[in-house]
Amino acid sequence: MKRSWFAGPYALWMILFTIAPLLFVVYYAFTNTQGAFSMASFLKAFDGQYLTILWRSLYLAFLCTVLCFIVGYPAAYFLASKDFSRSQTLLVLILLPMWMNFLLRTYAMMSILEDNGLLNQFLKNLGLNPISILGTQGAVLLGMVYNYVPFMILPIHTSLKKMDVRVIEAAQDLGASPVNVFRRVVFPLSIPGVISGVTMVFMPAVTTFAISRLLGSGMFLLYGDLIEKQFLELNNWNFGSSLSMIMMVLIIISIGLLNKADPKKEGSGVL
After folding, report:
1. From CA 40, how far away is CA 67, in angstroms rounded?
2. How many CB atoms lie within 10 A of CB 95?
3. Straight-line distance from the first to the last Cα atom of the chain, in angstroms, rounded to the nearest whole number
């Protein structure tokens, strides 16, 4: 048997469940309800109200990515430290929530943020006034960071662990201060992991819909919600496909930036 035959089941799976659905999306995006070629759906996607939703999604995804970086880089740097002996245990604790269902994690966040949730109970015990955060943009952003921060930590941790410690030792022997060692050696060498983490966080964040629907209580619409609504509620597959095509272009651009910044895939992987 030829070794390439073993790829047959995977190739069949890709054709049936990846390529074929994409072809349907392309077909519906460039046709109207009668099946004739039309660009009306694409033109409609660039109306002001839909561009506002797209901008809101990009803005929240950008904030989520920045916050995940602010939280994730120090955590990855701490876990990758050669002086820290329990890094593997904490790394497993970071991975543990990812083994749970995505919706379960979001529902858990709802129970924390609701009016009678754990957060307000904690504030009451401290003698502080409770806050109403569920149904706000802040709750959606918090849920996005909670769900996606492991995707920032893991690739950065991988880059830091792959780093040759002799380079750091050489910089220290040459008299570089700890700040300069980090600024001129450690951080530049971890850039592939940062780029990978940014891409892994930004792409799902910009397309999310479950988090905004559950934690936002339907108060504002994101691009993922808009696409879901076209397919499942309004049965407007043409417009929904056009919106999906626009989102796919953004994802392809993100992947292209990742490949350009990290051609050797040095930031990929988790362990």
Report:
1. 38
2. 14
3. 34
Please state, as a whole number, how many other Cβ atoms lie within 10 Å of the Cβ of residue 168: 17
pLDDT at 262: 61
Q: Scanning the structure block, which residue is given the tokens 């939280």?
A: 71
Q: Domain spans of the chain? A: 1-30, 41-261
Q: How many CA atoms lie within 13 A of 147 on its CB side?
A: 30
With the C-alpha atoms ordered 50, 17, 267, 150, is the resulting torsion angle positive or negative?
positive
- pTM exceeds 0.70: yes
Q: Could you say which residues of the chain have pLDDT below 70?
A: 1, 82-85, 261-271
| Residue whose C-alpha is closest to residue 239's, from 249, 225, 226, 255 | 226
What superfamily does domain 41-261 belong to in CATH? Answer: MetI-like (1.10.3720.10)
Query: How far, in Å, CA of 237 to CA of 244, rounded?
Result: 10
Cβ contact 177:199 at 8 Å: no
**Contact indicator for 155, 200 with CB cutoff of 8 Å:** yes
Query: For residues 151 and 200, what is the distance between their CA atoms, to the nearest angstrom?
Result: 6
Q: At what angle do helices 223-232 and 48-79 cross, to 10 degrees?
A: 120
